[in-house]
Amino acid sequence: MTTAQYMKHALTLARKGAGFVSPNPLVGAVVVKDEKILSEGWHKEFGGAHAEVNAIAAAGESVEGADLYVNLEPCCHQGKTPPCTDLIIRSHIKRVIIGMKDPNPLVSGKGIEILKKNGIEVHTGLLEEECKQLNEVFIKFIGSRKPFVIFKYAMTLDGKIATVENASRWITGEESRKIVHKLRNNMSSVMVGADTVIFDDPMLNVRLKGKEWKQPLKVIADSSFRIPLNSRVLTTEPQLCLIACTEKADKSKVMEARRMGAQVLVCPEKDGRVSLDFLFTTLGAMDIDGVLLEGGSTLAFSALKEGLVDKIIAFVAPKILGGASAPTAVGGAGFAKMEDALNLYRMKMKKVEGDLMFEGYLNTI
To answer: Biggest alpha carbon distance in the chain?
Structure first.
C-alpha cells in the first residue's frame, strides 16, 4: 500500500465514529510496521479513547519503530482523556504522518512540535483536502462556536418539493432517503419550520436497520408556536425536541410542551420571526455543532439570506408535478436581482438510483 492508501484507510476508519463523537472530530489511525498494517483504531464515542490510543492498544505487541497514520494532528492537552502525544512518545513510534493540523486552539500545531522535539519524524498535509472535508463540521464549530448548517431538500425536475395539495411522500427513491437518514445520524440536530410539521407531521428521526443509530435533536422554528401538541416531533421517543419560538407564543402551550418533556427556547424576533442567528448561537452554546435544515421554504430562505447556511445537498427526482402554487425548496421574498443570487462552489453530482444528488458550498471553511 502507498502512503495515500494508508491515509485513505484512516479516513474510512474515522467515518465509523460519525454521529457518536460530536462535538469532537472524526479521527482514524493506522499503525504500519514493515510496510504492513499492524493495527488500527478510531474515535468511537464522545469522551472515549482517541483513535491513536485505540490503534496502539490494538497492536498487541510493541509498536516501536512503526509509522502512525492519522487524519488529524494528535492532541497534546489534557481533556476528557490524556494527551495522545504522550502515548505516541512512550510507544517509540518512529514516524507520524498527519492529514491536517488540528484547528483547535489548544492544539493547532503544538502536538506536531512536541512530537518533533522528542525525536519523532512528522509529515503533514497528506490528503489534506479530504481530511478537511471529513471534519468540516468540527472545523467551523471549533473556530466560531456556531453549528455547521446543511440545507437538504428533495425536489422534482421542475423544482417542486410537494404537490399543490402539499403531498410530498415520496419525491425521491428509497436509496436517496437512506442517505438522508444517515445524514440525520451524522448531524447533532435536524431543523424544520412550523409549516413542515403542520402539513407533513414528520418524526425527524433515523429509521434505518442494521446497527444502533444516533437520534439527532429535533429543532422546530415556530415563532408563534403553531404546531399541535400531538405532533409526532413532540411525541416520538426517545428523541429530544426543542421548540424555538418568540414572545408571541401562547404561554399555556409553552408550559404544556415543557411538561411533555420538550425544551422551549424563547428567542428575540427578527422580521417578525425567530432570530435564526440567536437560535444558532444558542445551539452552539449547547454543543450542537451541526444542523441539518430540512425545510420549509420560508425558513430556508431566511437562513440563506442571513448567510447561515454552509452547504447544500439537493436530491432531484425525474418527476414533473407542475402547479403554480406547488411549493419550491426556497420561498420567502426571494432576491430581486440576478446579481444577488447565491452562488455555490465546489459542486459535486452523483447518481443515486434514479435520482441525482448535488452537493455544493456557500461558505468557505
So the answer is: 69
25: left (phi over 0), alpha (psi -120 to 50) or beta: beta
Q: Return the residue matching grid coordinates 442567528.
A: 277
DSSP letter string, 27-44: -EEEEEETTEEEEEEE--
AA letter at 56: I
The count of other CB atoms within 10 Å of the CB of residue 356 is 17
User: Burial of 89 by CB count in 10 Å (0-12 exposed, 13-18 middle, 19+ buried)?
Assistant: middle
Query: Which three three-digit cell numbers place residue 56?
Result: 496502539
CA atoms within 13 A on the CB side of 68: 38
Q: Round to the nearest angstrom and report the end-to-end CA distance of the chain.
A: 31
Active-site positions?
A: 52
**Digit-coded pLDDT (tens) for 164-173:** 998 888 999 9
Sheet holding 263-266, edge to edge: 263-266, 241-245, 217-221, 189-193, 290-293, 148-156, 311-317, 355-361, 345-352
**Are 243 and 263 within 8 A, CB to CB?**
yes
Cβ partners under 8 Å of residue 150, min gap 6: 183, 187, 290, 291, 292, 293, 309, 310, 311, 312, 313
Instruction: List pLDDT tens digits, range 11-51.
Output: 999 999 999 999 999 999 999 999 999 999 999 999 999 99
DSSP string, 302-356: HHHHTT---EEEEEEES-----TTS-BSS-SS--SSGGGSPPPEEEEEEEETTEE
Residue that has been written with the C-alpha cell 452523483 in this structure: 350
Task: Name the one residue in this structure whose C-alpha cell is 488529524.
Answer: 72
Helix (H) or strand (E) holding 199: helix 194-200
- What does pTM read for this prediction? 0.93
